[in-house]
Amino acid sequence: MRSISFKNIILVVGIAGVLLSCNSSQHYQRESINTENIYGVENSDTTNLALTPWQDLFTDPLLQACIEEGLDNNPDLQIAIQRVAESEAYFEQSKAALLPGINAKATGNYTRNSESLSQNSRRETGSYQLGIEAGWELDLWGKLRSAKRAPTPICWQLMPDGKPWKPV
Fold first, then answer.
1. What's the rounded Cα separation, in Å, for the pair 24 and 167?
2. pLDDT mean across residues, the chain
3. Domain-located, residue 161
4. Structural domain of residue 125, as residue ranges?
5. Which residues, at least 6 apart from 37, have a Cβ–Cβ distance to it below 8 Å?
């Protein structure tokens, strides 16, 4: 019978520790909090002014035209709209990380030697190469899924119905 050496025990424990430490992308679960009666009086009004379009609040056509012109020429609003579009583009681009990648490469080389070098061989030579490469990264540790979730547009996170925000 062989006795188990101290080095073998350390090796087994070390390998087990390394394998167990590879767990990543753990999902955070928010605990539910009871928010009933925190503010004292409960408001039973179901109409929310924030969900009402501004055209319904302001019925004067001249005022609506002024507001529309102000929204169209507001540089801060235009910057915000472009940032939302940029965020949506990053979100769409991050989905491509889960797809396979394909690369193609073609090269050509033409050489013409001087007459003194090519007395017994061909004076002109050409070599051509065509290469195709395909690869697919396996998402074993959840790195790609986490990268895909990261650029979720901030406007999607803030909208109460979960639908993409579109400017009025």
1. 38
2. 77
3. yes
4. 100-135
5. none
